[in-house]
Amino acid sequence: MAEKKITLEQVRHVARLARIDLYPDDEERLRTDMDQILSYVDKLGELDVNGIEPTVQVGESGAPMRSDEVTNSPNAEAMLANAPVRHRGYFKVPKIIE
Amino acid sequence: MSNEAYEAVIGLEVHTHLMTKSKLFCGCSTEFGRAPNENVCPVCMGMPGVLPVLNRRAVELAVRAGLAAHCEISPRSIFDRKSYFYPDLPKNYQISQYETPVCRGGYIEIQSGDGAPKKIRLVRIHIEEDAGKNIHEADASLVDFNRSCVPLIEIVSEPDIRSAAEASAYLHELRGILRYIEASDGRMEEGSFRCDVNVSVRKRGVSELGVKTEIKNLNSFRFVEKAIEYEVNRQIATLESGSRIAQETHLWDPVREETRPMRSKEFANDYRYFPEPDLPPLLIPPAMVEEIRRAMPELPSDRRARYIRDFGLSSYEAGVLTAERETADYFEGASVGLKNRRTAANWVMTEVLRIANETGQQISEALPSAREAGALLAMVEAQQISLNAAKTAFAAMIKSRKSAVETVAELGLAQVSDTVAIASACDKLLAAEPEKLAEYRAGRDKLFGFFVGQVMKAMGGKANPKVINEILKQKLAG
Amino acid sequence: MSSSTELNRLTIADAAALLHKREISSAELTRVCLDRIAAVEPQLNAFITVTQKAALEQADAADRRIKGGDAPPLCGIPLGIKDIYATKGATTTCASKILSNFVPPFDATVIAKLRGEGAVFVGKTNMDEFAMGSSTENSAFGPTKNPHDLTRVAGGSSGGSAAAVAAGECLGALGTDTGGSIREPASFCGVTGIKPTYSRVSRYGVVAYASSLDQVGPFAKTVRDAAILLRALAGHDPHDSTCSARPVPDYERALTGDVSGLRIGVPKEYFVAGMDPTVERAVREALKCYEAMGAKLVDITLPHTSYAIACYYLVATAEASANLARYDGIRYGVRAAAEDMISLYEMTRAQGFGAEVKRRIMLGTFALSAGYYDAYYLKAMKVRTLIRRDFDCAFEDCDVIVTPVAPTTAFKLGEKMNDPLTMYLSDIFTISVNLAGLPGLAIPCGYDANGLPIGMQIIGAPFAEETILRTGDAFERSGAVIPRRPAL
Ligand SMILES: [Mg+2]
Ligand SMILES: [Zn+2]
Hints:
The structure holds 3 protein chains of 3 kinds.
Chain A: H1 8-17, H2 24-41, E1 65-66, H3 76-80, E2 86-87, E3 90-94
Antiparallel strand pairs in A: 2-3
Chain B: E1 6-17, E2 54-55, H1 56-68, E3 72-73, E4 76-77, E5 80-83, E6 93-96, E7 103-104, E8 107-111, E9 117-129, E10 133-136, E11 140-144, E12 151-157, H2 164-180, E13 193-203, E14 213-218, H3 221-240, E15 249-253, E16 258-261, E17 274-275, E18 282-283, H4 286-294, H5 300-311, H6 315-322, H7 325-334, H8 341-359, H9 363-366, H10 370-381, H11 387-400, H12 404-410, H13 419-432, H14 434-441, H15 447-458, H16 465-477
Parallel strand pairs in B: 14-15
Antiparallel strand pairs in B: 1-12, 1-13, 3-7, 4-18, 5-6, 5-17, 7-9, 8-9, 9-12, 10-11, 13-14, 15-16
Helix pairs in contact in B: 2-3, 5-6, 7-8, 7-10, 10-11, 13-15, 13-16, 15-16
Chain C: H1 12-20, H2 26-44, E1 47-50, H3 52-67, E2 78-82, H4 109-117, E3 120-125, E4 145-146, E5 149-153, H5 159-166, E6 172-177, H6 183-189, E7 192-195, E8 215-220, H7 223-233, E9 263-267, H8 277-292, E10 296-300, H9 308-323, H10 341-352, H11 355-368, H12 373-394, E11 400-404, H13 420-425, H14 431-436, E12 440-447, E13 453-460, H15 465-478
Parallel strand pairs in C: 2-3, 2-6, 9-10, 9-11
Antiparallel strand pairs in C: 1-3, 4-5, 6-8, 7-8, 7-12, 11-13, 12-13
Helix pairs in contact in C: 2-3, 5-6, 7-15, 9-11, 9-12, 11-12
């Protein structure tokens, strides 16, 4: 069997970075899927891209800039309306430990 | 082994809010102190589908900072996404700049310990958005996004700083510059000017860098100094005991006056920076740089030089007057109509700074306007009032907010230079004190002061002392 | 005139004419669509939310506006809106559990534009969760079925919109296209769909999947209708920094029917072994038809085509991994019960996202992570440059490029669900167009032995929407293919 592109340990690390809790069944399943996709993606290795500029965007160049004006008026209620848990005008979360 | 065998290697990362009316990527107000989540919109709350649009003023202020710090301005810079999960970060990525910041290089000049100038080099200045604020309660944390997306610049120094005192000098100089160019209000307590410190130590003579720790949560200049001192000593003690320094992020605990490792950074950060696809590159053509340069207010170092060159002030005086832009502006405002700028310089360095210090208020809040101060000083120069009378008038003006002319008149502080009135007072005195007069004429010169004092008393303290002197001398000579 | 129960079969152009002549009312037209929705939805599942009440109010308002004279072309026209568009006051789920309760306090720019035109929104259409998929099977609300064969997929990710138009539930619909998500379902359902040039239409308020690839576009029954819709959608938006300020042409005026002298590029890489021979035959027939109309066929090559999928799945997933980080259960959406912050994130996202979304977030996170950035993400961005250059070269020799939309017709439900890579490969002919930022039009060009529609793709140079619409319209006018209505 070909060399693994990604190990279970790496899958767990990536899941931690992405903040997704993986169920034990998921881990191996994801590892296999990612392995398959990464092996496929390996075909890019056939191409010599030395000196080729990366294409990050395909739109027009130059970020437009807006003038420094306050165009929004306070509307806390509308902004809080979707909050899963709110408290005195704040979004409430479990206590954060710094 | 003593601490002298080691040297500290310190680099600072300063984050400062830019003084814009609206946020970096949306039209929400940046006003401080609003009720929670009032200054928010779908964009700065990271709602699904929203996109950033760059604030031109923020770019201009960042370029100003770069020009003030002798940086190279990038004609094309890139925004990147910096990914990490934190409740105050709405998109769970921060739009920042990574490989291609808006400004590169440059330096800030400080006075080092021996008074010699020293350049602290900069790595970069980049634009980024601020996060919201977490408030910690007993059993939960609360999130307010008012500050989310407020424009920041991050100013990263090279590790050129060697002591807590140099760090403090650098911060004061940087803050002064940013305030002069109206980029930042420099308010550390309100969190609009923040500083993270990277500290390592190494044996003197060694060129490679030691393992560094990063210290966060420093919200006053004093804490920066204390934290650096604490951390340098801790690292030296650690090394001396044979242990190694761990590369960690520490928090400054202002109550215990010590640093401690942060618990939330359990596993190494991997920010996964990549170019922000929602913002095309930021283009700053040379013409735009020139336009920004032309609109830039005078820098503190330039003002200092001008005061020495044009006003004949000493380097020390020029330094005191230019330390804050407000002080310098006040000085210049007050000295406009004066014969001698030094009159205003002395006044500002003594009276104005003393009062501002005592009240703990800004000059603009605590004191009469610079114009009125100038009017008062003009009266001193014209010998219409005494310096003491001017102090009395100034104190009254602070309370009444009345003009200098009005105040001097109301309090009857104008000096009497009327020679006839003074001569008559002298005559009366000499007639009433024949023995003292005889003693004086017999050679007791010391009595001259007595005669002056008595005439002044008789004139209700308002006579011009110079005129009294002249008249008395004539009369005593007989 | 058609009987009132058939009003939903009208094209937008015809319905608008009748509305303006006041021969029909928008209320009538909307009610017919809503009735059709009620009748077929149990089998089709093209909609996640049907906004019946709001639609009827919009229809009444449109009727008043038409009465007042000078109403815009889309006034009173019932449309389906992919559930990826923020619609103020109406749930916007992106077919995800994690957003199943999200009610945006704002409208996407294109939604605001359509409201301004007086269009009627009959509901929010089904899709692959966060637009990740090619079959609309990755929906938290169940798959959409193909109206031509209920055992088959509608295509994806905008499958609900394509199926809704094909089934006559609305006269037109909005989709989004990141790797083929408009063109592939249009092809599978036998309708017209256009993915405009990147930056032609604002993305503001469109839930982002892969920001540098996502584009907004319409579905319709005809090329003319697509042109009418696109004109309403396109144009500058100060809320989208990537949106072009170029003026928007009157696309309908470009539909002259004339293709004489048009140089049609035929890329050899798009007619390959393994593809469904009936699909190839149908597209080749269409090319002959163009030749007969005076167009010239040019053999071209797009040599990096076979790298497009690999490139796409790195670029798209990398961007997606950041775009989807905001779904954390703090400000909106569904939150899992948890004691501490880390668990709150991890449980919320584990429970809220479906398998394919997790797979892509994981892949993208990996591609950007320390030590892998250069080998995966950066490499893909460089290959993207090569793919783009292929098209630049090709367009020196031709005016449009014609290819199949997909290598097959609609596949069976469940057929590719357990094999992500095979599913990804169904986008092989559409993905390059997104990587290069080009406009692409999908129109029906025939039917296979099972009566399933076959789609033809017409690709243009940047901002050449007029040319590809004219090319598509000319084929439609030729009468070479008579569109078939689903039996449903
Ligand atoms: Mg920063
Ligand atoms: Zn905002």
